[in-house]
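As noted in the main text, all predictions were made from sequence alone. Below is one such record, for histidine kinase.
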Amino acid sequence: MGVAKPARTDLVLGVALVAAAVLSEAFIATSSTFASLAWGIVIAGGVTVRSTYPAVAVLVTSIALVFSPQAEHAGIDPASLGVVVAALLAFTVAERFGWLATGLAVVVLTVSCETTASYIIPLFPVAIVGAAGVGWIMKSQRRVNDELAARGQELEVEREIFARESVRLERARIAHELHDIVAHCISVLVVQAGAGRRLTDVDPEAAAEALSSIAEVAAQAEQEITALVAMLGSEPEEVTEPGVAMIEELVARMKAARLNVRLRMDGSISELDAEEAKACYRVVQESLTNALKHSPGAEIAISVLRQGRSAEVIVHNGPPPGARSGLENAGGGNGTQSMAARLRTFGGAFESGPTAEGGWQVRALLPLAS
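Prediction:
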């Protein structure tokens, strides 16, 4: 390890004090001695290493102050020069070390300065203690500034993490919305297209109704996707979100497509706010999608009721009465995960599973804000 270099400021201060001592002895004194000049240089020189070796500076300066009275002085009084150096050293120690080291340095330097003087000078301890106090204040302020800077960096990191997480959650939300819309539309299209194909020769009127329901579902999907895109734009207040009334419209379309769907919904559900109503709608929509995929042709019973301070949505379908839709392996469970995630954002509960007769039931409990 190399020897640390003195700070530039310390070198300038040290050179200035040494120059003052030399000039004082050379031009003011009438009977200066080499020893007097040497002690003055040692005392002043202690400043040059106060930042790199403060303990050495205190020790050397104190020794020089104690022994300097043995020399004859003609220029600057070593006590006067010493108190300046001692104050600088006390300031340095207080700024860099704790109370114990600061107190020890103050005592040593004060005693050394008073020893150098021919009589007790109250100004010496006041100057040294005052300099130590200033150093301690600056140390405390620097510590506060460092803590604030560190906290600022932590806040910046947290802000970046929050921004990334917000983007991730928004992407997940959009993905869930698109899944709910598109998956429902595709499921109905596949089921109705298959029904229309089978009924073309047997019941042309029913086949036409199936094709008509396909057009209605596609139009509804387009409307919801358009609303979702508009919601991401600059004027989301103009967007109409899916709500409780659209549950009735959704069930009506399913019935028009000759699907066996029953709805039970009490009037107080209409009092839900927009986000709560949208959550109920998405649960019904996704549950219908799953029923069409896994149990095409089965009876589907939907209830949307208010239970105290919660809204309860139950969608129950029986076992598939005939052939599968071919969509049962599509989606990978994203719909169920989407419903559960949506309910968690409200602090709600979600459960789904098979029934005893071979069907499926979804139950969602949504706490209400009012």
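The chain has two domains: 8-121, 168-367. The chain has a mean pLDDT of 73. These features were considered when defining construct boundaries for the mutagenesis experiments described in Section 2.9.
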